[in-house]
């Protein structure tokens, strides 16, 4: 997030797009509701399903899945046509030539034209654009509904265009705010658990950066960027990856097109899985290593708004389970390399010494923070108060770079054989692959199993009954799942949450990826439904 | 920010304009008793316990509601105020079961604390008392209206903070309680089971069922009884018993909001999760996963020993053997097919420190950049 969670309450308009915030990030949902209910903020929700946030929205733009670029380009078209651009911001902070190119591109995206693509009434697009552009400060909040598309990168860039054009970057109550879906996705990225960068997002291809890490770690380091998670699976099927070490991940439920993941993992010569439970992925492993849960170790997590916070040991781990750090350090030693430190506080010091954004963090400093205070990175040194809002003076590259992008349809559209669009996501009660939530009693009483959401018209058309079993099929496979007939999805769209191993939505999803980010298109697949 | 100066109990205080008397008192370490107040909610002024005397004011003012004016001279305690407060508490106690031993709120009940302060064991106001059935129709929220003091905090937090509004006062007069529409079971209302009502209830009227059912291990019940018997708040009692460390502040392991959690641990088991007020992203609010999704930690399905596949089956093994096998296999792959034939998936669930060491291991020890995690999934 360019801004913080606390800052959301300051916004005078919020565009929530591709985020079911109250279910997937409930506490951020509270901040949005507070802004709306108590601070006169106008809420625009762009979302194919009727999510709970729609109850609080001034305007609900019910777009077809995967048509985000057309919608946003059209909002920008209106903003330009009606003279609502923040000229001062564009002139001072952005690259003006790029803005002219953007103007040229969005010319054809009239609300009428975009309405054809998105299904959103043209006047709603106009009103939404006016609300957003006229607000004193307007925030954009998005999540996987934006990124999990073959056009995910395009989607993010159009949102950045919209924010810059209206001057909504670098000030309170504004910003482009992606919500990270897992407790420490932000941190895992920050500390270099990515194939192309070291800690602090510095490229592995940069010789100078590499030299710094080579000196610190005392070894020669590889120069070529590695494979992304999705590429690893394909490489395993091709026989290029022979051995895999998977820590605390469950691709057998979370990967798009599970059969593809299964084929990949089974094709490996050796698979080691480190987890707290015998997950669907661990069941395929040659060696399974028992790890500790968050409650049994020391460390830090970085929240979605770059807030680094302490994780503390509250109890002893069961049996012989050990922390990920201890295990990987032992393994390292057995392979002939001694880690300089293993203790979490010392490891954080090492991270701080090698990562400009984290330079000011230490466990001691975090422990000494008064209640209610937090430190958002960049926090370069021990005296630095942290940076709640990014890009207040200039962008990382200097001038803001508009990236005009044309609309492209999702990879797999409904056709005669597969007439429905399938989209996936989470529900309030469960978390990701259910490894944790499905082991909590009360949660399973409220939400015992997955359901496919289908509109009353479609249910009748395909002979599916509420509460009865249905078979959902795509080109990847089929699953049996209970039908939930509801007006919360429009005709032509079905929704399946992906938490449940026994009715795994990702047996169905399309593993085609965005060419830049390598994120699969979880949000759009062509599907068909029948009664079982 | 415009500042104002006031005097509280003879102490000169400075505060931003618009502060309530209670805000200023709190900031200056002056304790004014409250029951219907929660910093997450807008002021309500119902319980009247926070009444204070302001020089020149026509009546006593509720400190939670009244904005302080520049130059105000405020008394938060004197004989008259304490007499009023004692009477108010006595009135509440007159219709509240005072068998604090056995109540899961004992030691952190706001009414118990005030009754102890004013030395009230039972009320001098005799009269009809409520007899409600215990409501435990859903897995998370348990309601015992016999203990309700009608402060309306549950109603207000559900409406103002959660924006849902499951509760409102139902029935009239003596029979009024904060209930659900048509007295429906909570799972038939739009309730999201965030438990914000539990977190704000000042008494034992609304409590967490997982804690009542499975968390109240013997040791903890003893603690509740001891708090009631010795009239001590829970934290002081734990300190007296040398068990200060029973609550650990940490960060939630579910979504990326990073809410701050207090894990309550007895006998190496998490018995309850709460969130500190006005701290971190949640400000004391949690969601159903954060508040109730902790039972996986103590699940008997947790992995406790390394497993190694032998003749097609995963069987228990010693750490040494398992690690040696992994090291051997990874070295083999590295040697035979090159470092780039090995791939590592790190975890968005693990800490920064774990992730750092895992990517360091991949790059420095295996010698490949094939490291990623599930950010894309």
What is the 3D form of chain B?
Answer: elongated
Assembly annotation: heterodimer
Radius of gyration of chain A: 24 Å
SS elements, strand count of chain A: 16
How helix-rich are the residues of chain B, as a percent range?
25-40%
Instruction: Determine the N-to-C terminus distance of chain B.
Output: 45 Å
H-E order of chain B: EEHEEEHHEHEEHEHHHEEEHEEHEHE
Overall body shape of chain A: globular
Widest beta sheet: strand line-up of chain B: 2-1-5-3-4
Mean pLDDT of chain B: 94
Number of helices of chain B: 11
Give the number of helices of chain A: 19
Separation, N- and C-terminal Cα atoms of chain A = 44 Å
Biggest interface and its residues per chain? A-B, 151 and 115 residues
Biggest beta sheet summary of chain B: 5 strands, mixed
Question: Could you walk me through the main structural features you see in this protein, from its secondary elements to its overall organization?
Answer:
The complex is a heterodimer of chains A (532) and B (377). Chain A is α/β, with parallel strands linked by helices and 532 residues long. Helices cover 31% and strands 15% of the residues of chain A. In chain A, the strands form four sheets. Chain A has a six-stranded mixed beta sheet. Chain A has a five-stranded parallel beta sheet with strand order 3-2-1-4-5, with helices on both faces. A three-stranded parallel beta sheet of chain A has the order 6-7-8, with no helix packed on it. Chain A is globular. The mean pLDDT of chain A is 96. The radius of gyration of chain B is 27 Å and the shape is elongated. In chain B, strands 2-1-5-3-4 form a five-stranded mixed beta sheet, covered by helices on one side. A three-stranded antiparallel beta sheet of chain B has the order 10-11-12. In chain B, strands 6-9 form a two-stranded antiparallel ribbon. Chain B is α+β, with helices and mostly antiparallel strands. Chain B starts with a strand and ends in a 5-residue tail after the last strand. The interface between A and B is large, with 151 and 115 residues. Strand 6 of chain A pairs parallel with strand 15 of chain B.
């Amino acid at each position: 997030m360019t801004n913080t969670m606390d800052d959301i309450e300051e916004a005078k308009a919020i565009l929530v797009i591709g985020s079911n915030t109250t279910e997937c990030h409930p506490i951020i949902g509270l901040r949005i509701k507070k802004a709306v209910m108590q601070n006169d903020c106008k809420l625009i929700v762009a979302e194919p399903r009727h999510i709970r946030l729609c109850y609080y929205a001034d305007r609900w733009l019910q777009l077809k899945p995967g048509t985000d670029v057309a919608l946003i380009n059209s909002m920008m078209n209106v903003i330009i046509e009606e003279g609502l651009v923040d000229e001062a911001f564009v002139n001072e902070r952005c690259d003006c030539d790029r803005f002219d190119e953007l103007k040229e591109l969005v010319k054809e995206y009239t609300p009428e034209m975009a309405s054809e693509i998105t299904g959103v009434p043209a006047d709603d697009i106009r009103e939404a654009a006016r609300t957003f552009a006229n607000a004193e400060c307007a925030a954009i909040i998005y999540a996987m509904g934006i990124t999990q598309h073959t056009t995910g990168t395009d989607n993010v860039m159009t949102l950045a265009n919209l924010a810059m054009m209206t001057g909504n970057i670098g000030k309170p109550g504004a910003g482009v705010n992606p919500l990270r879906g897992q407790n420490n996705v932000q941190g895992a990225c920050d500390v270099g658990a990515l194939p192309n960068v070291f800690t602090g997002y510095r490229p592995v291809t940069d010789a100078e950066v590499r030299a710094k890490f080579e000196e610190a770690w005392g070894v020669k380091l590889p120069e070529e960027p590695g494979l992304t998670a999705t590429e690893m699976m394909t490489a395993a099927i091709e026989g290029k990856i022979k051995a895999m070490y998977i820590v605390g991940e469950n691709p057998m439920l979370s990967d798009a097109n599970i059969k593809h993941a299964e084929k990949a993992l089974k094709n490996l010569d050796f698979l080691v899985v480190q987890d707290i439970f015998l997950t669907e992925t661990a069941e395929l492993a040659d060696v399974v290593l028992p790890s500790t849960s968050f409650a049994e170790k020391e460390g830090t997590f970085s929240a979605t708004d770059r807030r680094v916070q302490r994780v503390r040991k509250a109890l002893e781990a069961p049996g012989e389970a050990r922390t990920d750090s201890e295990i990987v350090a032992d393994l390292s030693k057995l392979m002939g390399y001694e880690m300089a430190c293993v203790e979490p506080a010392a490891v954080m010091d090492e991270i701080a010494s090698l990562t400009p954004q984290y330079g000011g963090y230490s466990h001691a400093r975090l422990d000494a923070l008064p209640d209610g205070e937090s430190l958002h990175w960049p926090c370069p040194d021990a005296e630095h108060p942290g940076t709640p809002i990014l890009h207040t003076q200039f962008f990382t590259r200097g001038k803001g770079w508009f990236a005009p992008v044309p609309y492209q349809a999702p990879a797999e559209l409904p056709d005669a054989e597969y007439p429905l669009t399938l989209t996936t996501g989470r529900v309030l009660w469960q978390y990701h692959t259910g490894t944790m939530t499905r082991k909590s009693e009360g949660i399973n009483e409220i939400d015992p199993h997955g359901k496919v959401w289908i509109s009353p018209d479609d249910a009748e058309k395909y002979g599916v009954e509420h509460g009865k079993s249905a078979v959902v099929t795509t080109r990847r496979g089929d699953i049996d799942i209970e039908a939930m007939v509801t007006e919360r999805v429009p005709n032509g769209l079905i929704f399946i949450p992906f938490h449940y191993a026994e009715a795994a939505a990702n047996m169905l999803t399309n593993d085609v990826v965005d060419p830049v980010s390598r994120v699969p298109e979880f949000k759009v697949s062509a599907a068909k439904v029948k009664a079982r | 920010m415009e500042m104002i100066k006031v005097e509280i109990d003879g102490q000169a205080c400075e505060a931003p304009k618009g502060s309530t008397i209670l805000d200023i008192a709190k900031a200056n370490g002056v304790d004014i008793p409250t029951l219907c107040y929660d910093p997450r909610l807008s002021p309500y002024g119902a319980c009247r316990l926070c009444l204070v005397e302001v020089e020149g004011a026509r009546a006593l003012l509720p400190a939670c509601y009244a904005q302080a004016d520049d130059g105000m001279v405020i008394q938060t305690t004197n004989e008259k105020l304490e007499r009023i407060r004692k009477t108010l508490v006595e009135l509440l106690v007159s219709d509240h079961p005072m068998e604090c031993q056995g109540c899961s709120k004992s030691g952190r009940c706001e009414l118990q604390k005030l009754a102890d302060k004013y030395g009230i064991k039972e009320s001098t106001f005799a009269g009809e008392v409520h007899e409600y059935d215990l409501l435990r129709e859903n897995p998370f929220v348990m309601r015992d209206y016999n203990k309700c003091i009608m402060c309306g905090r549950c109603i207000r937090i559900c409406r103002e903070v959660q924006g849902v509004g499951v509760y409102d006062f139902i029935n009239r007069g003596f029979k009024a309680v904060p209930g659900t529409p048509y007295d429906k079971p909570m799972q038939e209302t739009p309730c999201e089971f965030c438990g914000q009502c539990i977190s704000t209830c000042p008494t034992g009227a609304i409590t967490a069922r997982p804690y009542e059912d499975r968390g109240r291990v013997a040791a903890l019940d003893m603690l509740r009884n001891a708090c009631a018997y010795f009239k001590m708040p829970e934290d002081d009692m734990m300190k007296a018993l040398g068990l200060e460390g029973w609550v650990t502040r940490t960060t939630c392991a579910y979504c990326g909001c990073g809410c701050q959690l207090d894990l309550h641990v007895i006998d190496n088991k998490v018995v309850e999760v709460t969130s500190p007020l006005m701290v971190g992203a949640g400000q004391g609010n949690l969601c159903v996963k954060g508040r109730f999704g902790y039972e996986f930690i103590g699940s008997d399905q947790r992995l406790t020993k390394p497993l190694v596949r032998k003749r097609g089956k995963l069987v228990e093994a010693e750490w040494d053997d398992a690690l040696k096998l992994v090291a051997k296999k990874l070295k083999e792959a590295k040697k035979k097919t090159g470092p780039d034939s090995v791939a590592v998936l790190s975890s968005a669930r693990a800490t920064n420190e774990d992730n750092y060491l895992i990517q360091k291991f991949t790059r420095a020890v295996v010698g490949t950049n094939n490291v990623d995690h599930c950010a894309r999934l």
